[in-house]
Amino acid sequence: MEVTVNTAEQLRLSAEEFELIRQKLGRTPNFNELCAFSGMWSEHCSYKNSIKWLKKLPREGGRMLVKAGEENAGLMDIGDGLGIVFKIESHNHPSAIEPFQGAATGVGGIHRDIFTMGARPIAALNSLRFGNLEEDKTQHLLSGVVHGIGHYGNCFGVPTVGGEIYFDECYHTNPLVNAMSVGIVKAGETVSATAKGKGNPVMFVGSATGKDGIGGASFASADITEESAQDLPAVQVGDPFQEKKLLEACLEVIQTGAIVGMQDMGAAGIICSTSEMSAKGEVGMRIDLDKVPTRQKNMKAWELLLSESQERMLLVAQKGKEQAIIKIFEKWDLPCSVIGEVTDDGILNFYMNNELEASIPAHELVLGGGAPQYEREYREPRYFEEIRKFNVGSIAVPADLKEVAEKLIRLPTIASKRWIFNQYDSMVGTVNATTNAPSDAPVVWVKGSKKGIAVTTDCNSRYVFADPYKGAMIAVSEAARNIVCSGGQPLGVTNCLNFGNPYDPEVYYQFVQVIKGMGDACRKFDTPVTGGNVSFYNQNPDGPVYPTPTIGMVGLLEDIHDKMTLDFKEEGDVIYLLGKSNNDINSSQYLSKIRNVEFSPAPYFELDDEYSLQQKIAELIKKKLIQSAHDISEGGLFITLCESGFNREIGFTVETKDNIREDAYLFGEGQSRVVVSVKADLIEKFENALGDFPHERIGLVTSGEMLVNGDFWGTIDWWKEEYDSAIENYLSKEEAGSALSSI
């Protein structure tokens, strides 16, 4: 067929990009070649609108073993000959169209990024965003996404140990589904996503290729509209049992020493894995597409190139060792075929039945090679004017604070996510163990050692909407704070940057400021960014989602017995608030959801205060001077106190401060504050250790009653029931009951 600029535009390439392709090839591409460029130059694969800014993030240092972007996931040294491999990625667009498979294949894809490097996944996390939970569409999306995550993770055999979920109207059409995986690898057993060695065989392993997922990368690089449902074939279909076999086979074949390089076939399928491995090794490949195992007849060359069928890997093996590799995959009942060989000319030549279907220099397809890089126009969003108009003095302090607290604890963003996490298996597998004892960050034991890994995902996107620079710093700081409050030392970051359309100058302003804030915070905490992904185009005709730079962070406990939990331990322990209290209700759940104020500044935050707080918490834990530690986040001090009491069903009595509004003291979300409890006989040592660090003695742990300023607010068991049942009460009885009965 004749290829024209109109063909390119139908494939979501611009007229300028079509002309650039012609210049690079020295000719007009054929349709197969244009499809390859469409996939590889999509935003999802090329980062063409973000890479210039991403390079400004701290991308090396600390315990990093590979620079950001060099491999499929981040790799950091945790000592004793072990490394931690981790990454977070989005699967937003597929989940908006087909929530079950969209979420399930997101989980499968992120685990493949881990074990393709030779690591065994030991933990999964997620970060989710949905619209109003009272709406049928939101309930449908929530149910499908949670089912998909649970199904794939539970069957694959990797525990889902943590995550977060928020509900806001801006996510009505565009839910966000960010999946994170963490794995452990021994020194010397990592594998690079690199092709080398002229004549070395290129091998296809894993599930046969079908037409599912074709065009998924370019589909994820466009806004969601009413017509997006027509792109349903772009959603992949996953098989967790097949991936489990692929995991074991890949880890076994690595032990043979016969593997030169390996990469999973994720977005853009075969064209992505062949081009990226070749470009990295400065080689080319000859690929016979007719040798690719298929599950559908008469697939065309472009379909084979772009299919995103799941559970597939591309291997480059040492010549002469093919049979040893094939034997292992046959043992695991997985297809394994030699589909080509490495060449030394830097050209990808794809054949079908000995006819050349496409010929492209690998370098021209990839990020950092020939893919275009743009820096878009940006300007301050107009809604900032509304934020600047906010006057806290116009918000009267409610007469009945208890009534406010009752509404607050039932908000779906704050309430227990029991209905969700009960569908995830947090204990499956034998390569790790977690006590499930409540802590700000889940802690996973590294089998065969004393070490623990603290992991978390964090981002309050309402703060980022209010102030993208400060909000991004808060997201990094909260992740680090959660790890520190759990007894860990923050090590590194992977991010999932979810934004609207980058061609919207106000959206791009948010993106630029987020990069600046994230970079400053990561440098402060010495947590370099090891990788991640950017998800633009989370936008519909009503507008973009809140800017949501999800932070995935890992931390290290040299001895897992140093873990700190968030729950109060016994009656009579003294409750302290560490950090500065402020007259601040900005961007809180209380202000936005109870008082219905949409536009307000981000809450109080100072990076130096945050750093000092985390250093002090780490010191107190090391000296064993505190019984519990729980940071103040959504819902403010009151919700933090409740969550600290729920696990053992013990209450508290607290007093507010005279110089701060009662609603701000109880429900404000000013940052850099942590609630700790202390045994009475350790008070003197505790306060000596604090020195002049800002702190308040605010109350006592009780047997179960809750008192605020001397007023009886009920018992902890009543509040726990309200907290636990809130989300189930939002959902239909049939849907909630069905999900719970399947646990």
Summarize the structure in short.
The protein has 743 residues and is of the alpha+beta class. Among the domains are: 52-119 and 179-365, Alpha-Beta Complex (Phosphoribosyl-aminoimidazole Synthetase, Chain A, domain 2), CATH 3.90.650; 376-419 and 565-743, Phosphoribosyl-aminoimidazole Synthetase, Chain A, domain 2, CATH 3.90.650. Strands 7-9-6-10-8-11-12 form a seven-stranded mixed β-sheet. Strands 22-24-21-25-23-26-27 form a seven-stranded mixed β-sheet, with helices on both faces. It has a six-stranded mixed β-sheet with strand order 13-14-15-20-16-17.
Report on this structure.
- With 743 residues, the protein is α+β, with helices and mostly antiparallel strands.
- Among the domains are: 52-119 and 179-365, Phosphoribosyl-aminoimidazole Synthetase, Chain A, domain 2 (Alpha-Beta Complex); 376-419 and 565-743, Phosphoribosyl-aminoimidazole Synthetase, Chain A, domain 2, CATH 3.90.650.
- The chain has a 7-stranded mixed sheet.
- The longest helix is centred in the N-terminal third of the chain and has 21 residues, at 136-156.
- It is globular and about 85 Å long.
- It starts with a helix and ends with a helix.
Number of strands: 27
Give helix % range. 25-40%
Task: Give the percentage of residues in beta strands.
Answer: 15-25%
Strand line-up across the major sheet: 7-9-6-10-8-11-12
Mean residue pLDDT:
92
Count of DSSP helices? Answer: 27
Per CATH, the class of the domain at 52-119 and 179-365 reads Alpha Beta
What class, by secondary structure content? Answer: alpha+beta
Please tell me the CATH architecture of the domain at 52-119 and 179-365 by its name. Alpha-Beta Complex
Q: For the record, what is the CATH homologous superfamily label of the domain at 52-119 and 179-365?
A: PurM-like C-terminal domain
Distance between the termini: 53 Å
Instruction: List segments where confidence is low: pLDDT < 50 over at least 5 consecutive residues.
Output: 216-221, 734-743
Q: Shape, please?
A: globular
Assembly state here? Answer: single chain
The CATH topology of the domain at 52-119 and 179-365 comes to Phosphoribosyl-aminoimidazole Synthetase, Chain A, domain 2
Query: What is Rg?
Result: 26 Å
Q: Sheet with the most strands?
A: 7 strands, mixed
